[in-house]
Amino acid sequence: MLYLNEVFSHVAPKRRTVQDMAGELELTPQDVSVFRTVFGLREIAVVDEGGALELLDAVLARLVATTSIDLKQIKYIFHCHAAPCVCPSGAELLQPLKKKYGLEHATSIGLAQDQCATPLTALSLAEILLADEADDAKVLILTGEVGFTPKLRLISNTTIIGDASAACIVGKQGTRNAVLTVAQRKFEMADVQQAVGSIPVPATSYGDDLLQVVRDALDQASMRLDQLALIVIHNVNTISWKFFARNFPCPLELIYLDNIAKAGHCFTSDPFINYCDAVAAGRLKAGDHFMMVSVGTSSSFAAVILQH
Amino acid sequence: MSSGCVHIQAYCHQTFTERQPAPQTFSWVGEYYAGLLEPFGLTTDLSRLDDGMNNDFLSMGRSVMNALQQESSLEDVSLFLMAHQTPDTYFPFRSTTTRLCSEFNITAPAIGMTEQELTTPYVALAALLSAYRDGRKTGSGLLLALDQGTLPYVRPGYSDTTIDNALLIKVSGPSAPDGIAMNGRKVWIDPASRKANWISQAIYAYLDDQRIDLKDLHVVVDEQTPSDATTGLAVPISHADPRLMSVSALSTALEKSKQGCAHVLLVHVAKNEQLFLFSFSKLRTPMQEAA
Q1: Which residues on A lie below 8 Å from B97 (Cβ)?
Q2: How far apart, in whole angstroms, are the C-alpha atoms of residue A251 and residue A261?
Q3: Among B190, B182, B187, which residue's Cα sits nearest to residue B204?
Q4: B85 CB near a chain A CB, below 8 Å?
């Protein structure tokens, strides 16, 4: 059994409206209107200065200041990112942060092939590696990257990318957030991936594929959707989640949509940011079952069922 | 990493020396690389792409998977790991694992491990060991390690002579009847002790545990391992070819095993002062055992 022992998040404090970003994203007034009214995106979190290093620094500072876990227990650090690379090959992004925060002993790797779903599929790898470690060993799952050019901020007709980071400590021992099942699927969407020069747009079957991976997760856990207290999502837009609610079906209130309008889709960080905010807002009680769901642009879908 | 071994049922290593057509480019490629490189003090030189070999991950992965499939079925794959240090030639977003899973009908979890501290292939090996030893997982696991050298910048700290290559290994639990037995251990290097001595001691302890006699041993080290770490060992030592990147030490170890070495020990010292040891022992058939 795997547990999310502690989760931390940091959302870049500066906000820009979709309208403010229209020029650099080459959005028409009609596009702006669709993003606002149909997709539910209003403000996007953006870094004022700096990049991925600063985002990761901020969330690690929060972790180190408040964690109850001995950092020596962290054996691996997974930096999960949506873009294939977040630093040049051969350069070191995490090394200065590991030194600053006393994490030099941990082995770090990057994970990226599932794009925004990567931190959820990473749970499978964490469980595998922890099986050979001491009972109190931990894996630190880090997220955090920036759209450093406008082309990395826009998925056409789908979403606008914001900047944030998150840190999630997972281990074999814990008292909360037991991971009951991790379902993941890679659907064949060759046409989706042929996009050259821009982030691929989700396939037309996106909605149905999302339903399928959620059903997979529920089946694996022998649960029904109405047994969940909350679905913690990736903030791609509201319309896709309305489609999900209508077609599964389930009440829209079951889905934590609050941050779509406030921050945009923050690459790999969304499920952890939404978890932190949902807990702070009292949306999860001890013992509640909940689901985390995310999707990568390569048609990688992941759904995780946990017990808070 | 500890206890039982896993079996490498098959492997395939290929180098790709033919120049391929350049991938389709786009207007903002310079802007992208500037954003990626400048925070690290590096500059973009797009002209380097003109001289590249252009071997993309999907083509290389497809090639070794097709080749390995001739020898061993991929039908029972229950975990697929991909490890690399360099990025793909394809840009900006394509998931090689998704495409390969689709093409080879693999429905198992597939995870891609990228550049950090150059330890990804060893973490991937450790994951395969952890997943399949002691029958924890059924079926077989794949590790695809690959790298390519067509980049619009000079990789900091590395020679500019990467050979495009890919290695695919297929492992299963210890019940498989043949292949190469692989085991391994990850050890913290005590910073208070002299590193080389400590590494030697850790190697001897591992060999004792595995009951591997020095007279049957061949050692493979990569370029990150301190040169004096293994000099005290009175055994043949091979230095992995750094031009092969992620694949270098593992392909060398497997080649030595194929050439008849009874036991091959792969030694890697990670940047975080962690020692990775992997041993590869040829499995003997019952007839060989009897002889």
Answers
A1: 113-114, 186
A2: 19
A3: B187
A4: yes
All structural domains of chain A with their residue ranges: 2-171, 178-307
A121 and chain B in contact, CB less than 8 A: yes
Dist. CA B140–CA B123, nearest whole Å: 17
- In terms of CA atoms, which chain B residue is nearest residue A72? B188
* Torsion from C-alpha of A291, A155, A212, B108, nearest 10 degrees: -90
Report chain A residues whose CB lies below 8 A from the CB of B111. Answer: 111, 113-114, 121-122, 124-125
State pLDDT tens for residues B13-57.
999 999 998 877 777 888 889 999 999 999 999 888 888 899 999
- Whether chain B has a CB inside 8 Å of the CB on A197: the answer is yes
> In angstroms, rounded to a whole number, what is the distance separating the alpha carbons of residues B252 and B221?
9
Q: Is B190 on the interface with A (CB under 8 A)?
A: no
**CB-CB: which of B2, B114, B119 is closest to A111?**
B114
The residues of chain B scoring below 70 in pLDDT are: 1-3, 92, 116-117, 159-160, 190-192, 194-195, 284-291
In this complex, is the C-beta atom of B109 within 8 Å of any C-beta atom belonging to chain A? yes
Q: Is A159 touching B (CB cutoff 8 A)?
A: no
Residue type, B203: I
What fold, for A178-307? Answer: Peroxisomal Thiolase; Chain A, domain 1 (3.40.47)
DSSP string of A91-156? --SSHHHHHHTT-TTSEEEEE-TTGGGHHHHHHHHHHHHHTTS-TT-EEEEEEEE---SGGGTEET
- Which chain A residues are within 8 Å of B39, Cβ to Cβ? 51, 53, 87
CATH number for region A2-171: 3.40.47.10
Tokens at residue A12, please?
A: 């870049």
Poorest-pLDDT segment among A158-162, A195-199, A222-226, B119-123:
A195-199
Residue B287, CA distances (Å) to A261, B35, B82, B291 in order: 70, 61, 36, 6
> Of chain A residues 201-240, which have a CB less than 8 A from chain B?
none
Question: Domains, chain B, ranges and CATH?
Answer: 6-19+29-172 (3.40.47.10), 180-284 (3.40.47.10)
CA-closest candidate to residue B5, choices B263, B287, B245: B263
Whole-number pLDDT of residue B82: 97
Cβ neighbour number for residue B42 with a 10 Å cutoff: 20
pTM given for the model: 0.94
What are the structure tokens assigned to A233, written together?
A: 């999502």
Chain A residues lying within 8 Å of B188, measured CB to CB: 105
Element (H, E) at A69: none
How many Cα atoms within 13 Å fall on the side-chain side of residue A209? 20
Give the nearest partner residue to B82 out of A113, A149, A300, using CB atoms.
A113
ipTM of the complex as predicted: 0.93
Q: Which of A129, A305, A299, A94 is nearest to A202 (CA)?
A: A299
Count of residues making up chain A: 308
B114 interfacial to chain A (CB closer than 8 Å): yes
Separation of alpha carbons B74 and B66, rounded Å? 10
In whole angstroms, give the CA distance from residue B82 to residue A84. Answer: 13
Query: What is the C-alpha to C-alpha distance for residues A116 and A267, in angstroms, rounded to an integer?
Result: 5
